[in-house]
Amino acid sequence: MAVAVLTCIAAAVGAPVVVTAPLGIALFAAPGYLLGLLLFDSRVAGLERVAVSTGIAFCLPIIGGLLLYLARVPLHRAAWLGLIAGVTVACDVLLFLRRRGGRTAPIIRPSVRRLRPWPAAAFGAAVVIAACGLGLARLGVAVQYTPGFTQLWLTHRAAGGATANLGVRNDEGSTTRYRLVLLRNGRRVGAWNLTLANGQTWHRSPLLPADNTIAADLYRLPDLNQPYRHVALDVNRAPSP
Amino acid sequence: MSRTAISAPADGTTVYITPVTQVRWRALHSRAPRHAAPAPSRLPIWGVALSAAVGVLVVAAAYTAGRLGHSSSAWADRAYWLGQSLILVPAATRLLSRRALTAGGTVAVLVLLTIAEYLIKICYSPVAFTYADELEHWRSAVDLLQSGRLFTVNYVLPISPRYPGLEEVTAALASITKLPIFTVGLVVVGVAHLLFVCVLYLLFCDISGSCRAAGVAMLCYAANSLFVSFDSMFLYQTLALPFFALTLLAAWRLPTRRTAGQRANWLTFGVITIAATVVTHHVTSFVLVMSLTGISLVALLTGHRRPAVWAGGLALLSAAAVAAWLVFAARQTVAYLQPYVAAILHTVRALLTGEHISALATSTGPLGNRILAVAAVLTISLLLPVGWWRIWRRYRRQPWAVAMAIGSTSWYVIVAIRLTVAYGSELAGRAATFVFVPAAFVLALAVIHLVGSTLRRKAGGAATIMLVAVLLLMFNGLANGWPPYWERLPGEHQVAGSEQSVGAEEIATATWTLALLGPGNRFATDFGSYPVLGAYGYQNPVRDVAYLFTSPVYSPLVRARSRVQALRYVWVDRRLSQSRPAFGQYFPADPEAGKYTHPLAAVGLDKFNRAPGVARIYDSGNIVIYDLAGS
Fold first, then answer.
1. How far apart are alpha carbons A147 and B623 in whole angstroms?
2. Are A152 and B618 in contact (CB under 8 A)?
3. Residue of chain B minimizing CA distance to A84
4. Pairing of strands B623-627, B615-619
5. Nearest-CA residue of chain B relative to A136?
6. For B298-337, how does the pLDDT look when each residue is reduced to its tens digit (9 = 90+)?
């Protein structure tokens, strides 16, 4: 119940992920554990208890979500939180009442064997090594060479509109200088010198000519001979999206 | 209440329980390993754990080497196999050793093996989903999170929102933890995969009465080529599998409960897991109905009325739930599965009438892979009859074991399907997830028997042969499973491939289409970009579009056909004219699949630049998007 209340409070105050993640995972597992206790008392133990509890924890959002959907409740954060926290609190109350009535079977508590230092250290080392493996894999993605690219586009801005959407986005991996030339029926009607940082986007809304072709050539400076990117719209024939 | 110390016969663990529960505890731990030898294993669990962790690190290093441009180097490939050996060999050696094997130790080895292989799967794509089917389910999960509604539209996998179990669990956990969908997805499928392994182990343990047999059966199950890939991916089947196994567990427990209350509780649990299975995955729910029906019939034939009644009851409930779901929520399922069923029926008809059967090539990999595949098929095919014989000798009055024996014959069916049916390889691969459940059990009985019989004759060499045979099956699962050999190590972009066709440029372009063009536009694109466009771009890519890329000119005929298909945009990846397709096909539905001897002609890709009325609206260097609306 404490987990349910804490998770709801964390959600209400907009707590950061470092708080909501462990609380949320604990809350997600709680109904499985409690419903497992309600259904089976101590009649299942060990691995079977864990399996049954986990299975129920997974079943709850599936069946509960379906019921909420049928009740026309939008499945946003509040609904999920209400469903899982609600079931947790209800199960807690039921277990409390059952225990007060003395209707629970005695609980088998297998003693936990204490791990000796050397195996414990080995298991710890295994966790650290595996974590290093995951870190290395992520590092590999970060340092992997991927050729950079620049996006150039020219589309109709809106249905039936008189303006176009002309844009450039730099994903070359570093700051890049461009020259963008706008052409109407092959004649230059505008030009821009752009210096875009990696990830930066530039866009304009040029007027669409009544019955012409509009095109844009993007040059990557200092090369002004060969267009780096090219787009073109035939205004006569292309209907608005 | 006084407590008594009691030792579990399986592992010698001392526990303290009340006299009331002593009988129950003894009953619970009566699954003592019948093949256990007195001396404990020389290979401790922590040794297996350390070795597996080092294996994960070595494989991660091989993957990093691949990403740094060494994906085709021999030493990187060897490092990958070294890492896998560090995981598989100690685990298999411990489970197949002649020394004592405890229930806890067996579970620990299986959990370590499963986690290590799952970590390797994460290392392959550690920052985002890249496999096509994962992207499709990712799209459905994003839709549910954003709209708060079930049964939304998913253009690339329309059936996915009709089975929203995985998306519901992911959305619920992502909502309450605020973690990204990718992280939550990894947690959900990782736990589901481990849960499936543990429940299957429990079932095998109960049916065989031996934790060693259950452990070896799980090793054999892990040799299924999809165990480390498809069955642990962000897919609806991954979550449905543990529900399937938990329902079987309920069916196993129900007849053995003494009081009506206990039976009612297990029945409630069974009903919940049946509902979850049906809402989560179509094929798994069909297999559940068939499995429960089969168990019920076998129990009836072997004179076990109670198991027959309970399994039959659960089968009826499952069938009713499946039928109701098909009628009220997922009518599209029939159309979705129809091509596969039709292919099988066609082959069966052809076999019966003596027609010529033509199937696609089943294996086009390196010679080593093909030899491994043949050896694995032969090994399984030869070991299964030994397992049947063991079941006849020892378990013929046990309905579940007999049902497993009957179910394991489906192995020969999937081998036949692989060799004869048009979609044979894919069908057989997908079916392996289910076929290996009974087959692994029967294989384990055969392996245990052969190891045991050689022990009696003091012929340790044969025991080693069994270890080699099981390892052969496991390495075959890796070599001929997923990722395919040409993408085993991540690396450079692949033309019309799988994970390696998903790069920054494809994702940026797909995201651009959603932002600038809006969702749901009908697109023509290639095989590699298809899932990216559907998932990141939320577009509606059409499958049968090869003609649009291969024709040298944008002729009136091509234009007319594209209009019939209501195609609005064409996504042209100019790299299609630079390499042959990794998968053998350039397009989702490609009439020339497997026949390409050289890359596509550039003229076929560039023709849109000269086509009247076709607008060139996007250019990112490799990818160009054309708008056909004005043509």
1. 13
2. yes
3. B172
4. antiparallel
5. B60
6. 999 999 999 999 999 999 999 999 999 999 999 999 999 9
